[in-house]
Known about the structure:
The protein has helices at about 5-10, 50-60, 75-80, 100-110, 125-130, 155-160, 175-180, 215-225, 230-240, 245-265, 285-290, 305-310, 345-350, 365-375, and strands at about 65-70, 90-95, 115-120, 135-140, 165-170, 190, 205-210, 270-275, 295-300, 320, 330, 355-360. By secondary structure, the chain is α/β, with parallel strands linked by helices. The chain has two domains: about 5-240, Aspartate Aminotransferase, domain 2 (3-Layer(aba) Sandwich), CATH 3.40.640.10; about 245-375, Aspartate Aminotransferase, domain 1, CATH 3.90.1150.10. The strands form two sheets. The chain has a seven-stranded mixed sheet with strand order 1-7-6-5-4-2-3, sandwiched between helices. Helix 4 links the parallel strand 2 and strand 3 (about 115-120). Belongs to the trans-sulfuration enzymes family. Its cofactor is pyridoxal 5'-phosphate.
Amino acid sequence: MKFETLAIHAGQGPDPAYGAVMSPIYQTSTFAFQDYNQPGPFDYTRSGNPTRKQLEDCLAALEGGKFGYVFATGMAASATLLSMFNAGDHLIIHDDLYGGTYRLLVSVLAPKGMEVEFVNLRDLDALRAAIKPNTKGIWTETPTNPLMNLLDLSAIAEIAKPKGIVTFCDNTFLSPFYQRPLDLGIDIVMHSTTKYINGHSDVVAGAAITNDPELSDKIKMLQNAMGTAQAPFDCFLTMRGVKTLPVRMERHNSNALAIAHWLEAHPKVTQVLHPGLESHPQHELAKRQMSGYGGTFSFRVTDGEVAKHLLTHLKIFVLAESLGGVESLIEQPWTMTHLSMPEDVRRKLTLTEDLIRISVGIEHVDDLIADLEEAIK
């Protein structure tokens, strides 16, 4: 089946109890055993729930995976996956990544004895040089948040697989509609489903999908043991959102690309970081690896004062963290999403005051451009 059909039907047949066409919310903590010492398909919602199972099956199908798991937040997904590793294990992390993931790695996992090394994974020779005998995982984002750098997932997977290193890709920015890392050889793909997959800014949630049965068993055990699973009502909301993912992504994509072209011609904009533009240094990789560009990108203005004026004089764009909702959002990574990074790290990565990240919604593009034009002074 095509993606648009899977988004509506995968894992979501009529409910067997009463034939409900839309998946019902099994808002229950526990399930009756069928007989002495004989549970049914579900026994306790932390371990499994019919509403959650339908969402997990749907997301797995959309990513081209066999096993899907959903979590209470995107960070709960990341924390659960990283709990597969132990003290002494070496993890290679792309050096340009979401600030919350950086904080988890540096402030929580590294003090517990995991060896965390940040590497520019656009440089495949640097990746090869960083691998050690105790290297157990390679963690990627592509496009990266917020600098929109791209990583060659096929090449990274080819380096990692012969060495038995588990590869991860955060696919939040593109959703499976525009990028499928499992098809490119990545072992585990994850999402903050808060973003495009849910798409309505009313849920926080996460997901992980894999094709590997052994990795699946580890994720399932950790999800249950750590209690990080997504609640049934939030699963219902996410499943409702995912049904319109294809049509939303098409509008996000077209709106964002039009705005990126408009910004590129503005005298107060010094750089537009959008992989769909020919000016992006990895535009050819984008065309090879992705089928579209999503709705989130970044740009630089002439200085911090221009950025401040822009952020405080918009009427349609909302100054807020997060991304991927139907509404347009705008933020400054320096003071918002990446504030948890030390200042010297932010400056080294060029996450400076002139950088703006924009999440383009599905409003009419002419209204969005007019809003930006009025605010950039």
